[in-house]
Protein backbone atom coordinates (compact mmCIF):
# COMPACT_ATOMS: atom_id res chain seq x y z
CA UNK A 1 0.00 0.00 0.00
CA UNK A 2 1.08 3.58 -0.68
CA UNK A 3 0.98 6.38 1.90
CA UNK A 4 -2.08 8.55 1.33
CA UNK A 5 -1.14 10.94 4.13
CA UNK A 6 2.46 11.85 5.00
CA UNK A 7 3.13 14.13 7.96
CA UNK A 8 6.59 15.49 8.76
CA UNK A 9 7.47 17.57 11.86
CA UNK A 10 3.97 19.07 12.13
CA UNK A 11 3.89 21.66 14.94
CA UNK A 12 1.24 24.02 16.33
CA UNK A 13 1.56 26.19 19.43
CA UNK A 14 -0.87 28.41 21.32
CA UNK A 15 1.32 30.88 23.15
CA UNK A 16 3.90 28.92 25.16
CA UNK A 17 1.95 25.65 24.87
CA UNK A 18 2.67 23.31 21.96
CA UNK A 19 -0.61 21.60 21.08
CA UNK A 20 1.30 19.28 18.73
CA UNK A 21 5.06 18.98 18.65
CA UNK A 22 6.93 17.79 15.53
CA UNK A 23 4.50 14.99 14.64
CA UNK A 24 5.70 12.50 12.02
CA UNK A 25 3.51 9.69 10.70
CA UNK A 26 2.06 8.09 7.56
CA UNK A 27 -1.41 6.74 6.79
CA UNK A 28 -1.54 3.97 4.20
CA UNK A 29 -4.08 4.14 1.40
CA UNK A 30 -7.14 1.98 2.05
CA UNK A 31 -6.34 1.51 5.73
CA UNK A 32 -8.30 2.12 8.91
CA UNK A 33 -6.05 4.42 10.96
CA UNK A 34 -6.83 5.16 14.63
CA UNK A 35 -5.50 8.38 16.16
CA UNK A 36 -5.95 8.10 19.92
CA UNK A 37 -5.12 10.16 22.97
CA UNK A 38 -6.58 11.60 26.17
CA UNK A 39 -8.46 14.89 26.04
CA UNK A 40 -6.11 17.75 25.18
CA UNK A 41 -3.52 15.49 23.55
CA UNK A 42 -3.69 17.33 20.22
CA UNK A 43 -5.96 15.07 18.16
CA UNK A 44 -8.46 17.73 17.10
CA UNK A 45 -5.68 20.22 16.33
CA UNK A 46 -4.02 17.68 14.04
CA UNK A 47 -7.25 16.90 12.20
CA UNK A 48 -8.09 20.59 11.80
CA UNK A 49 -4.66 21.15 10.23
CA UNK A 50 -4.95 18.16 7.89
CA UNK A 51 -8.44 19.30 6.86
CA UNK A 52 -6.96 22.76 6.04
CA UNK A 53 -9.03 24.54 8.73
CA UNK A 54 -5.96 25.52 10.73
CA UNK A 55 -2.49 26.62 9.67
CA UNK A 56 0.48 24.85 11.30
CA UNK A 57 3.41 26.81 12.71
CA UNK A 58 5.93 24.41 11.20
CA UNK A 59 6.18 21.11 9.39
CA UNK A 60 4.79 19.65 6.18
CA UNK A 61 2.05 17.29 5.08
CA UNK A 62 1.10 15.57 1.83
CA UNK A 63 -2.52 14.46 1.50
CA UNK A 64 -3.48 12.43 -1.57
CA UNK A 65 -0.34 13.79 -3.24
CA UNK A 66 -1.20 17.44 -2.53
CA UNK A 67 1.00 19.65 -0.37
CA UNK A 68 -0.62 21.27 2.65
CA UNK A 69 -0.54 25.06 2.46
CA UNK A 70 0.06 25.16 -1.30
CA UNK A 71 -2.72 22.97 -2.69
CA UNK A 72 -5.42 23.28 -0.04
CA UNK A 73 -8.26 23.44 -2.57
CA UNK A 74 -7.15 20.11 -4.07
CA UNK A 75 -6.84 18.62 -0.58
CA UNK A 76 -10.44 19.62 0.22
CA UNK A 77 -11.58 17.85 -2.94
CA UNK A 78 -9.80 14.69 -1.73
CA UNK A 79 -11.10 14.52 1.84
CA UNK A 80 -14.36 14.19 3.72
CA UNK A 81 -14.82 15.02 7.40
CA UNK A 82 -17.40 13.98 9.98
CA UNK A 83 -17.28 15.76 13.32
CA UNK A 84 -19.01 15.15 16.65
CA UNK A 85 -21.65 17.79 15.97
CA UNK A 86 -23.90 17.45 12.94
CA UNK A 87 -23.70 20.18 10.29
CA UNK A 88 -27.01 19.59 8.50
CA UNK A 89 -30.16 21.74 8.65
CA UNK A 90 -32.90 20.08 10.75
CA UNK A 91 -35.67 21.75 8.70
CA UNK A 92 -34.47 20.42 5.33
CA UNK A 93 -34.91 16.87 4.12
CA UNK A 94 -31.89 14.60 3.99
CA UNK A 95 -31.81 14.92 0.20
CA UNK A 96 -32.12 18.72 0.28
CA UNK A 97 -29.26 18.92 2.76
CA UNK A 98 -27.00 16.81 0.57
CA UNK A 99 -27.89 18.76 -2.58
CA UNK A 100 -26.97 22.02 -0.82
CA UNK A 101 -23.69 20.61 0.45
CA UNK A 102 -22.82 19.06 -2.90
CA UNK A 103 -23.29 22.40 -4.63
CA UNK A 104 -20.41 23.75 -2.51
CA UNK A 105 -18.12 21.37 -4.41
CA UNK A 106 -19.19 22.90 -7.71
CA UNK A 107 -21.52 20.04 -8.62
CA UNK A 108 -24.99 20.48 -10.02
CA UNK A 109 -27.80 19.02 -12.08
CA UNK A 110 -28.05 15.30 -12.76
CA UNK A 111 -24.44 14.46 -11.70
CA UNK A 112 -25.08 16.02 -8.27
CA UNK A 113 -28.39 14.17 -7.81
CA UNK A 114 -26.69 10.91 -8.75
CA UNK A 115 -23.80 11.61 -6.34
CA UNK A 116 -26.24 12.33 -3.51
CA UNK A 117 -28.21 9.16 -4.21
CA UNK A 118 -25.01 7.10 -4.26
CA UNK A 119 -23.93 8.55 -0.89
CA UNK A 120 -27.37 7.85 0.59
CA UNK A 121 -27.33 4.28 -0.71
CA UNK A 122 -23.86 3.72 0.75
CA UNK A 123 -25.20 4.77 4.16
CA UNK A 124 -28.48 2.83 3.76
CA UNK A 125 -30.56 6.02 3.78
CA UNK A 126 -32.09 6.13 0.29
CA UNK A 127 -35.55 5.29 1.65
CA UNK A 128 -35.35 8.21 4.11
CA UNK A 129 -34.10 10.87 1.68
CA UNK A 130 -37.42 12.79 1.74
CA UNK A 131 -37.57 12.89 5.55
CA UNK A 132 -36.50 15.99 7.45
CA UNK A 133 -33.07 15.65 9.03
CA UNK A 134 -34.50 16.87 12.36
CA UNK A 135 -37.02 14.01 12.39
CA UNK A 136 -34.41 11.25 12.10
CA UNK A 137 -33.22 9.10 14.98
CA UNK A 138 -29.73 9.66 16.39
CA UNK A 139 -28.24 6.82 14.37
CA UNK A 140 -29.98 7.94 11.18
CA UNK A 141 -28.72 11.52 11.65
CA UNK A 142 -25.20 10.21 12.12
CA UNK A 143 -25.45 8.22 8.89
CA UNK A 144 -26.77 11.31 7.12
CA UNK A 145 -23.78 13.27 8.45
CA UNK A 146 -21.45 10.65 6.97
CA UNK A 147 -23.37 10.64 3.66
CA UNK A 148 -22.84 14.41 3.50
CA UNK A 149 -19.07 13.80 3.63
CA UNK A 150 -19.24 11.20 0.84
CA UNK A 151 -20.96 13.22 -1.90
CA UNK A 152 -17.71 14.07 -3.70
CA UNK A 153 -16.25 10.53 -3.30
CA UNK A 154 -13.26 11.49 -1.12
CA UNK A 155 -10.12 9.38 -0.93
CA UNK A 156 -9.91 9.72 2.86
CA UNK A 157 -12.70 10.15 5.40
CA UNK A 158 -11.83 11.85 8.70
CA UNK A 159 -14.07 10.53 11.49
CA UNK A 160 -13.75 12.60 14.67
CA UNK A 161 -15.54 10.53 17.33
CA UNK A 162 -18.28 9.55 14.86
CA UNK A 163 -20.34 7.42 17.27
CA UNK A 164 -20.26 9.58 20.41
CA UNK A 165 -23.69 9.63 22.05
CA UNK A 166 -25.03 6.59 20.20
CA UNK A 167 -26.23 3.46 21.96
CA UNK A 168 -24.10 0.30 21.52
CA UNK A 169 -26.43 -1.30 18.98
CA UNK A 170 -26.54 1.83 16.81
CA UNK A 171 -22.76 2.27 17.08
CA UNK A 172 -22.32 -1.29 15.86
CA UNK A 173 -24.67 -0.69 12.92
CA UNK A 174 -22.83 2.49 11.90
CA UNK A 175 -19.50 0.66 12.00
CA UNK A 176 -20.78 -2.24 9.94
CA UNK A 177 -21.70 0.26 7.22
CA UNK A 178 -18.36 2.10 7.47
CA UNK A 179 -16.32 -1.10 7.24
CA UNK A 180 -18.41 -2.26 4.29
CA UNK A 181 -17.83 1.13 2.61
CA UNK A 182 -14.09 0.77 3.11
CA UNK A 183 -14.09 -2.77 1.72
CA UNK A 184 -16.17 -1.86 -1.32
CA UNK A 185 -14.48 1.43 -2.25
CA UNK A 186 -10.97 1.21 -0.79
CA UNK A 187 -11.56 4.46 1.06
CA UNK A 188 -9.09 5.37 3.81
CA UNK A 189 -10.64 5.96 7.26
CA UNK A 190 -8.86 8.28 9.73
CA UNK A 191 -10.50 7.76 13.13
CA UNK A 192 -10.46 9.39 16.52
CA UNK A 193 -12.63 7.72 19.14
CA UNK A 194 -13.22 7.30 22.87
CA UNK A 195 -14.37 3.71 22.26
CA UNK A 196 -11.27 1.54 22.16
CA UNK A 197 -13.20 -1.44 20.79
CA UNK A 198 -13.56 0.61 17.58
CA UNK A 199 -9.80 1.18 17.45
CA UNK A 200 -9.21 -2.58 17.88
CA UNK A 201 -10.24 -2.95 14.23
CA UNK A 202 -7.59 -0.51 12.97
CA UNK A 203 -4.63 -1.50 10.81
CA UNK A 204 -2.43 0.99 12.63
CA UNK A 205 -2.79 3.02 15.82
CA UNK A 206 -1.01 6.14 17.02
CA UNK A 207 -1.34 7.13 20.68
CA UNK A 208 -0.80 10.83 21.22
CA UNK A 209 -0.01 12.34 24.62
CA UNK A 210 0.72 16.01 25.36
CA UNK A 211 1.10 16.77 21.66
CA UNK A 212 3.68 14.07 20.93
CA UNK A 213 3.48 10.48 19.69
CA UNK A 214 3.82 8.21 22.72
CA UNK A 215 3.42 4.90 20.86
CA UNK A 216 2.41 3.49 17.48
CA UNK A 217 1.79 0.12 15.87
CA UNK A 218 -0.96 -2.38 15.20
CA UNK A 219 -3.42 -3.03 18.05
CA UNK A 220 -1.91 -6.48 18.49
CA UNK A 221 1.64 -5.10 18.69
CA UNK A 222 0.63 -2.47 21.26
CA UNK A 223 -1.17 -5.05 23.39
CA UNK A 224 1.82 -7.37 23.22
CA UNK A 225 4.30 -4.65 24.17
CA UNK A 226 2.36 -2.70 26.79
CA UNK A 227 -0.48 -4.90 28.11
CA UNK A 228 0.35 -8.28 29.61
CA UNK A 229 -2.09 -10.95 30.73
CA UNK A 230 -3.75 -10.62 34.11
CA UNK A 231 -5.35 -12.80 36.76
CA UNK A 232 -8.49 -11.58 38.54
CA UNK A 233 -9.19 -13.03 41.98
CA UNK A 234 -12.42 -12.76 43.95
CA UNK A 235 -10.99 -13.05 47.46
CA UNK A 236 -12.37 -14.43 50.72
CA UNK A 237 -9.62 -12.57 52.56
CA UNK A 238 -8.44 -9.66 50.39
CA UNK A 239 -6.12 -8.30 53.09
CA UNK A 240 -4.22 -11.57 53.43
CA UNK A 241 -4.18 -12.05 49.65
CA UNK A 242 -2.77 -8.54 49.15
CA UNK A 243 -0.09 -9.15 51.76
CA UNK A 244 0.91 -12.40 50.02
CA UNK A 245 1.19 -10.70 46.62
CA UNK A 246 3.25 -7.83 48.04
CA UNK A 247 5.59 -10.30 49.73
CA UNK A 248 6.10 -12.11 46.40
CA UNK A 249 6.61 -8.81 44.52
CA UNK A 250 3.57 -9.19 42.26
CA UNK A 251 2.12 -6.06 40.68
CA UNK A 252 -1.61 -5.91 41.38
CA UNK A 253 -4.59 -3.59 41.81
CA UNK A 254 -7.25 -4.02 44.51
CA UNK A 255 -10.92 -3.06 44.09
CA UNK A 256 -13.01 -4.14 47.06
CA UNK A 257 -12.64 -7.91 47.40
CA UNK A 258 -11.29 -8.24 43.85
CA UNK A 259 -7.58 -8.30 43.03
CA UNK A 260 -6.18 -7.93 39.52
CA UNK A 261 -2.68 -9.38 39.25
CA UNK A 262 -0.37 -8.60 36.32
CA UNK A 263 1.28 -11.65 34.74
CA UNK A 264 4.28 -12.01 32.47
CA UNK A 265 2.77 -15.16 30.97
CA UNK A 266 -0.61 -16.86 31.24
CA UNK A 267 1.07 -20.00 32.62
CA UNK A 268 2.33 -17.98 35.61
CA UNK A 269 -1.22 -18.08 36.96
CA UNK A 270 -1.05 -21.82 37.76
CA UNK A 271 1.60 -21.83 40.54
CA UNK A 272 0.19 -18.58 41.94
CA UNK A 273 -3.31 -20.04 42.22
CA UNK A 274 -1.88 -23.11 43.94
CA UNK A 275 0.10 -21.00 46.42
CA UNK A 276 -2.93 -18.79 47.22
CA UNK A 277 -5.37 -21.65 47.70
CA UNK A 278 -7.92 -20.73 50.35
CA UNK A 279 -7.54 -16.98 49.80
CA UNK A 280 -9.93 -16.72 46.85
CA UNK A 281 -13.37 -18.00 45.83
CA UNK A 282 -13.07 -17.69 42.07
CA UNK A 283 -10.63 -16.49 39.44
CA UNK A 284 -10.32 -15.54 35.80
CA UNK A 285 -7.38 -15.14 33.43
CA UNK A 286 -7.57 -12.67 30.54
CA UNK A 287 -5.29 -11.23 27.90
CA UNK A 288 -4.33 -7.57 27.98
CA UNK A 289 -6.52 -5.17 26.01
CA UNK A 290 -5.83 -2.05 23.99
CA UNK A 291 -7.32 -0.12 26.90
CA UNK A 292 -4.70 -1.66 29.22
CA UNK A 293 -2.00 -0.63 26.75
CA UNK A 294 -3.39 2.91 26.51
CA UNK A 295 -3.38 3.23 30.30
CA UNK A 296 0.18 1.90 30.53
CA UNK A 297 1.40 4.30 27.82
CA UNK A 298 -0.32 7.51 28.94
CA UNK A 299 -1.12 6.87 32.60
CA UNK A 300 -4.64 8.11 31.86
CA UNK A 301 -8.03 6.75 30.91
CA UNK A 302 -9.00 7.59 27.32
CA UNK A 303 -11.65 10.10 28.40
CA UNK A 304 -9.38 11.99 30.81
TrEMBL record:
<dbReference type="InterPro" id="IPR003439">
    <property type="entry name" value="ABC_transporter-like_ATP-bd"/>
</dbReference>
<protein>
    <submittedName>
        <fullName>ABC transporter ATP-binding protein</fullName>
    </submittedName>
</protein>
<keyword id="KW-0067">ATP-binding</keyword>
<keyword id="KW-0547">Nucleotide-binding</keyword>
<feature type="domain" description="ABC transporter">
    <location>
        <begin position="5"/>
        <end position="235"/>
    </location>
</feature>
<dbReference type="GO" id="GO:0016887">
    <property type="term" value="F:ATP hydrolysis activity"/>
</dbReference>
<dbReference type="Pfam" id="PF00005">
    <property type="entry name" value="ABC_tran"/>
</dbReference>
<keyword id="KW-0813">Transport</keyword>
<comment type="similarity">
    <text>Belongs to the ABC transporter superfamily.</text>
</comment>
<dbReference type="InterPro" id="IPR017871">
    <property type="entry name" value="ABC_transporter-like_CS"/>
</dbReference>
<dbReference type="InterPro" id="IPR027417">
    <property type="entry name" value="P-loop_NTPase"/>
</dbReference>
<dbReference type="InterPro" id="IPR003593">
    <property type="entry name" value="AAA+_ATPase"/>
</dbReference>
<dbReference type="GO" id="GO:0005524">
    <property type="term" value="F:ATP binding"/>
</dbReference>
<dbReference type="InterPro" id="IPR050763">
    <property type="entry name" value="ABC_transporter_ATP-binding"/>
</dbReference>
